[in-house]
Amino acid sequence: xxxxxxxxxxxxxxxxxxxxxxxxxxxxxxxxxxxxxxxxxxxxxxxxxxxxxxxxxxxxxxxxxxxxxxxxxxxxxxxxxxxxxxxxxxxxxxxxxxxxxxxxxxxxxxxxxxxxxxxxxxxxxxxxxxxxxxxxxxxxxxxxxxxxxxxxxxxxxxxxxxxxxxxxxxxxxxxxxxxxxxxxxxxxxxxxxxxxxxxxxxxxxxxxxxxxxxxxxxxxxxxxxxxxxxxxxxxxxxxxxxxxxxxxxxxxxxxxxxxxxxxxxxxxxxxxxx
Length: 274
Ligand SMILES: CCCCC/C=C/C(=O)SCCNC(=O)CCNC(=O)[C@H](O)C(C)(C)COP(=O)(O)OP(=O)(O)OC[C@H]1O[C@@H](n2cnc3c(N)ncnc32)[C@H](O)[C@@H]1OP(=O)(O)O
Ligand SMILES: NC(=O)C1=CN([C@@H]2O[C@H](COP(=O)(O)OP(=O)(O)OC[C@H]3O[C@@H](n4cnc5c(N)ncnc54)[C@H](OP(=O)(O)O)[C@@H]3O)[C@@H](O)[C@H]2O)C=CC1
Known about the structure:
One of its GO terms (biological process) is fatty acid biosynthetic process. Its main location: other. Interacts with PEX5, probably required to target it into peroxisomes. Participates in chain elongation of fatty acids. Catalyzes the reduction of trans-2-enoyl-CoAs of varying chain lengths from 6:1 to 16:1, having maximum activity with 10:1 CoA. Has no 2,4-dienoyl-CoA reductase activity. It comes from Salinirubellus salinus. With 274 residues, the chain is α/β, with parallel strands linked by helices. It has a single domain, classed as 3-Layer(aba) Sandwich (Rossmann fold), CATH 3.40.50.720. 38% of the residues lie in helices and 14% in strands. The chain is built from 7 helices and 7 strands. A 7-stranded parallel β-sheet has the order 3-2-1-4-5-6-7, with helices on both faces. The structure holds ligand LGGBLMCM and NADPH dihydro-nicotinamide-adenine-dinucleotide phosphate (NDP).
């Protein structure tokens, strides 16, 4: 049964119902992991608001249908494969996107990886696989795109997906929690270092958002008992993360850098009065 007041947590409306339809005109956005889940929703919303959008991940099968959705809005799309854990591949991706769409003005570090496991069962390779994707990948993409943003001289926005599991520690998420904590710290560092170039760097921390990725990470359906920890009394949907990603890409956030925004239905808030 829903707790009192939780019926006041309806679905987040589409970005086009919230923002001016030309908000992202002239932007060129690159979204890693843009072929699925949260990344897909951000990619399509950016295009609907006027940006040309590139999406990149390891598997082209994920990317092609989303590129078609982007093109259906009338904007240009670029779909390219990358493993963000490899710097050479990241450099190639940035070159391809720049050749096809022009200078990148918005980078969304969304590619992510996780699986839930007791730390004593986590192998070195399992640790590297997740931390490599989350933290190395975010660093490599930010460095490759940031260098070009600096050369281009027009500033830019770097947005990275953190996670609420990095805030208080999270049992069975040793690799993911530590990697996401590093992502938040990296965005603060870049926000400080690259402010002089007009480059902003911010973090969005989703709570528990229903995607195929998280279902894989927890080994099936999300257990209903997790809702007891979520004040909104519902799991998040990818659309719940989109308005923050639009805001941070837009001129509305021109004075916002090094910030950390959670979209978690109150998951981080205490559940008891003491
Ligand atoms: C409060 C809630 C917070 C939630 C926070 C975050 C949530 C999310 O991020 S949800 C999004 C999750 N999305 C994904 O994970 C999609 C991408 N996932 C993957 O690519 C794979 O699941 C991957 C993470 C395992 C990486 O794939 P790949 O690089 O191809 O790696 P391998 O399959 O070769 O495995 C590497 C290594 O990891 C070990 N391993 C894999 N799964 C598990 C598991 N469930 N438990 C324990 N260990 C696992 C695997 O055995 C390999 O290690 P070695 O055997 O030592 O070689
Ligand atoms: N869903 C949730 O509850 C939460 C999600 N997050 C974060 O939000 C982001 C999106 O998550 P979500 O949409 O749920 O997950 P998905 O699993 O749907 O998305 C992850 C994406 O990353 C891509 N990817 C994974 N590894 C690599 C790699 N090495 N190189 C390039 N691309 C890669 C995948 O594509 P491909 O397989 O083609 O490479 C996939 O498109 C992630 O950063 C995640 O950690 C944070 C907290 C909670």
